[in-house]
Write a structure and sequence with these properties.
Structural class: alpha/beta
Largest sheet: 7 strands, mixed
Number of helices: 16
Strand content: 15-25%
Helix content: 25-40%
Length: 465
């Protein structure tokens, strides 16, 4: 639950603990909060409500134990059943326990919240219920990742805004927000998106990303693998395939494939590749996985020939040439349509050509800026919802105590940037591409073709000629 302040979430959680404790003998409820004082306060709410129950209910379920951080109820009618335990702890504890209900209050604001959530979620993940509630704390961290990834990740997202309380008016909320200045929208949000972006420092325009999520992103109609069959690229549909395609290849169009490499299986980051139509700037494909550089090079090669033009020329390949990307570039040395950058070699004092996209401090900022501009203008036809989610966790990091230090674009802690940087490279190349530039200068407006059904052999239905 993402919520505004002072909505009674802790009282609701306490009421649920009380009901569950009375209803199910022998089970454990674990209440976690920011610190011990907050945890004790939560259990006091449970105790207050229990003491307010009618005497005949308390007689059936008398307390077996009661302390600052523990309440235990006996079984029904004095039968010998294990007591039900409601136990409150600060967020720094709870690891290794087992609970049938685990509730976390203000989970986004726990100290070292990412590590603590990772430690305590398994406490109830296998046998019980998990309830997390918090105000926002920026577009970063595990709480944001859980909320923004729901419901696909198995969680059920609930947002309750500042106006949910019936005693609050628009004017009252506006006043509360004004008192807190920059933190007003975080503490008293009207929308979930506003709550996160107001407490973060997103690198891209938030409202534009929200619009893309609602209007541009869509599930891929095809997912599978690309295989070589007697010198021909064949698309085979598989539910867990590396590739997702939103549109089939059209030889009358032209495509660009941008890619970011990783070390391979076991790496922290992922390898990612995107395919974009060079005229419409619409995304037609994406590949994501922890695969080795040699496998990524092979995937780029297969996708490039699958999306070749009418003259048989494969799609323009733009692998990032940094780090493990150097191996990808080397393995694609015979690929006939590679992006080449003109660079000036300071050591040799002469121009040189760089195959692939070699990211440096200057062109990294330029690529991210170009992507941000395309997002704001609505010209970036991203289809991948996961890419937009990642862009929402891409932040501008600043150092207020070090004014001379430049701001830096980076993934928020606990998140990744492989999709974001691959889209940035693709956008920069499209912006610099003569073919794309000519279209925006007044060239023919070529409509995007609809996606045709796939067959099991070639992956694509026959064209209607």
């Amino acid at each position: 639950m993402l919520k505004a302040r002072q909505l009674g979430f802790s009282w609701t959680l306490a009421l649920y603990y009380l009901w569950y404790g009375l209803r199910y003998p022998g089970r454990k409820c674990l209440a976690l909060s920011v610190g011990q004082a907050e945890a004790d306060s939560l259990l006091n709410k449970v105790r207050t409500m229990y003491e307010s129950l009618p005497a005949w209910i308390r007689k059936q379920r008398p307390l077996a134990a009661s302390s600052r951080s523990e309440m235990a109820f006996t079984g029904h009618d004095g039968r010998r059943l294990p007591p039900t335990l409601v136990w409150s702890l600060p967020s720094s504890r709870g690891r290794g326990e087992t609970a049938h209900v685990l509730g976390g209050d203000e989970a986004a604001h726990w100290e070292h919240s990412d590590e603590r959530l990772a430690a305590v979620i398994p406490t109830a993940a296998d046998v019980g219920q998990l309830i997390l509630g918090s105000t926002a704390n920026g577009m970063q961290g595990r709480f944001f990742g859980i909320y923004s990834g729901a419901p696909d990740n198995g969680w059920h997202p609930v947002f309750i805004g500042a106006l949910a309380r019936p005693d609050r008016s628009d004017a009252m909320v506006a006043g509360l927000r004004a008192e807190l200045e920059d933190l007003g929208a975080q503490e008293y949000p009207l929308t979930a998106e506003e709550a996160f972006v107001s407490s973060g420092s997103g690198a891209f325009d938030h409202e534009s990303l929200v619009w893309l999520r609602a209007n541009s992103c869509r599930p891929a109609p095809w997912q599978g693998i690309l295989e070589l069959d007697q010198g021909r690229v064949v698309a085979s549909k598989q539910s867990r395939g590396l590739w997702k395609l939103w549109s089939e290849p059209d030889p009358l169009r032209s495509y660009v494939i941008a890619a970011d490499a990783c070390q391979g299986p076991g790496a922290r980051d992922y390898a990612h590749a995107v395919i974009f139509d060079r005229w419409s700037w619409d995304q037609v494909g994406a590949m994501h996985g922890r695969i080795a550089p040699d496998d990524l090079a092979q995937e780029i090669r297969k996708a490039g020939y699958l999306f070749r033009d009418a003259e048989g020329r494969p799609a323009l390949a733009v692998p990032e040439a940094n780090n493990h990307g150097q191996a990808v570039v080397a393995l694609l040395k015979n690929y006939p349509n590679m992006w080449v950058q003109e660079r000036f070699d300071q050591r040799l004092q002469k121009p040189s050509q760089q195959r692939g996209w070699l990211t440096d401090m200057k062109n990294r900022v330029q690529a991210i800026g170009m992507l941000g501009s395309a997002i704001r203008k609505g010209t970036w036809g991203v289809r991948d919802l996961e890419a937009v989610t990642e862009m929402q966790t891409f932040i501008t990091r600043s150092w207020p105590d070090q004014p001379s230090r430049r701001d830096r674009y980076e993934a928020a802690p606990g998140t990744h940037d492989d999709r974001t940087m691959t889209h940035a490279i693709a956008c920069a190349v499209l912006s610099l591409s003569p073919r794309a530039a000519a279209t925006f200068a007044g060239g023919a407006d070529m409509p995007v073709q609809s996606y045709r059904p796939l067959n099991s052999r070639t992956g694509y239905a026959p064209s209607k000629v």
